Amino acid sequence: CSGPKSVIPVRNDLTFLDLTVQQIEHLNKKYDANVPLVLMNSFNTDDDTMKIIRKYSGFNVSIKTFNQSRYPRINKESLMPIPKSCRTDDDIEAWYPPGHGDFYQAFSNSGLLEEFVDQGKKYCFISNIDNLGATVDLNILNMCLDQSREFVMEVTDKTRADVKGGTLIQYEGKLRLLEGAQVPKEHEEDFKSVKKFNVFNTNNLW
Predict the structure, then answer these.
(1) Where are the beta strands (DSSP E) in the chain?
(2) Cα gap 170→13, rounded to integer Å
(3) Would strands 63-67 and 37-41 be described as parallel, antiparallel, or unpaired?
(4) What is the DSSP string of 123-178?
(5) Is the dihedral of CA 40, 43, 46, 48 positive or negative?
(6) Which residues are CB-contacts of 26 (< 8 A; sequence separation ≥ 6)?
(7) Could you list the pLDDT tens digit for every one of the 206 residues in the chain?
(8) How far apart are CA 183 and CA 188, in angstroms?
(9) DSSP-assigned beta bridge partners for residue 168
(10) In this structure, what DSSP letter does residue 24 have?
(11) 155 neighbors 190 (Cβ within 8 angstroms)
(12) Rounded Cα–Cα distance for residues 91 and 75 (Å)
């Protein structure tokens, strides 16, 4: 797939983004709310995304976008940055977007976090655009409110199809997320076991 994965058709010619916009519009209409859709792009997909979202201008959904950071690629021999300047356009292949883990810093740097806080918004639901099982579950939101939860991760039963995804472990007396990239090679099979690790991180976060 070239371009944003949000525009891949998945059902009756509707894309991941079409279905997500429909879900949030339904939520806003049902509860007379104003839940925005916020899309995190990279410098590779931002221009395409801005063109695509124009078609939703008549929908009852406010769509905001922001960009991930950009990091320079490193020469494996010299361990020096490959880019010769700070301009991405000078050599776009010399830069890369860091991915999901950059959300918090990039969201804050974009100014959107401050904007939403000023509007009185308190909770943010994060999911991958290609996860159609990710919906705004009011039961989880009410739990966050009732129990004053600052962070919630949605997990589900792990199957053999989920062996590469993150799981939860007890470490130094705390519940922590363990990702495959953190696991030493000699313990990879243990990590994939659905008996030893029976939950799977859906990457839906509150």
Answers:
(1) 9-11, 14-15, 37-41, 63-67, 71-72, 95-96, 153-157, 167-171, 174-178, 199-205
(2) 44
(3) parallel
(4) ---B--TT-TT----HHHHHHHHHTT-S--EEEEE--GGGTTS-EEEEETTEEEEE
(5) negative
(6) none
(7) 566 888 888 888 899 999 999 999 999 999 999 999 999 998 888 888 999 999 999 999 999 999 999 999 999 999 999 998 888 888 889 999 888 889 999 999 999 999 999 999 999 999 999 988 899 999 999 999 999 999 999 999 988 887 778 899 889 999 899 988 899 999 988 888 888 889 989 989 99
(8) 6
(9) 177
(10) H
(11) no
(12) 14
Gap between the Cα atoms of 144 and 138, Å rounded: 10
> Which residue shows structure tokens 């739990």?
143
The residue type found at 102 is D
Flag whether the pTM goes above 0.90: no
Q: Which residue in this structure is represented by tokens 């495959």?
A: 180
Quickly tell me which residue has 């994060």 as its tokens.
126
135 contacts 19 by C-beta, under 8 angstroms: no
Closest by Cα among 66, 44, 42, 65 to 53: 65
